[in-house]
């Protein structure tokens, strides 16, 4: 019966919601439905000895898994009821078909100026790496080394600026642009830093927005997303290598490819599966304590609450916090009103994002999309207080838009 009711809710929500890459509503449904499907597949088909079992969460029996799945189904139903209430109360029809033009017109910048900036930054990076790492950039005994924190910060930000400059050169100086991207990526690999993945994402994203036509964007996504996922798995593997530095790290794909594949699957597991098992553990361990709940939902900064006195009690064990979904479903009635409200907030955010995009306010729309969507993975993997903060940030941002922007959301 509960599954039938979910399907019915999804049917009516689909009648008033158009698929969009920048819809927090669509992302919410895709994320949690995918997590349910993958968690069931992981539980039944992943060999016992192959399971990651973070913080001992995976070792549950079938009935315990389905108890957690039922919680996720109820959460989707409550969320959908909030969405439908908002869309019918405010007569929000299916989003009008429109094309989000992500082509951003940059102010005129001379190519030679960008080349000079890139060259100057490259020289700066070489000097900073020589001062901070020296020969240890190529090979060293340990992953982490105590370098000058200020110098490392300057190096990281200047590398970000360099790869951004390189991406701007993609159209006029494609070879130089790719050399810059390779240079920055190699340096970050030498550090063993996850910034290698983040900076590559920045590079690809800028090119995606500024220089690609619709057909190329499609191929960019088809081949680019799997590459980034695999590269991130490689990036995570670096810290577990026996020896460290650029040399050993570049050799890793030829000597430890199994670790790269393992870390790639671990990323998928932690992002889309872990939270389902963590939710059951949370429901089993979380005490009914309304003081804890009040603190978790309190919008005040942590130092103005008793959060730092109680947060260690809101954990599955030393390694893993409770999941936000498990925490709120410790109080079933409150969970209904909570996710009903979340559904309304997401619906309102979607409506504003659409208005912003239609009025060419791409930056503001993208920020609101990120703030709202951040609630999704945080509620899946972290404490309720950590996730609900993003709802407050999104609501404050929407209030600021309403005050300072000429984009008004009318009934």
Structural account:
The chain crosses the membrane at residues 25-45, 65-86, 114-133, 154-170, 182-211, 218-240, 260-280, 330-349, 361-378, 390-407. This is Oligosaccharide repeat unit polymerase. The protein is an all-alpha fold and 411 residues long. The protein folds into two domains: 2-101 and 271-404, no CATH class; 111-263, no CATH class. Helix content is 70%, strand content 0%. The protein is built from 18 helices and no strands. Helix 1 (2-14) runs parallel beside helix 3 (62-89), helix 6 (174-191) packs antiparallel against helix 7 (195-211) and helix 17 (375-381) packs antiparallel against helix 18 (384-404). It is globular. The protein starts with a helix and ends in a 7-residue tail after the last helix.
Which helices and strands, and how do they pair?
Elements: H1 2-14, H2 24-45, H3 62-89, H4 111-132, H5 149-168, H6 174-191, H7 195-211, H8 214-237, H9 246-255, H10 257-272, H11 274-285, H12 290-297, H13 307-310, H14 324-328, H15 332-358, H16 362-373, H17 375-381, H18 384-404
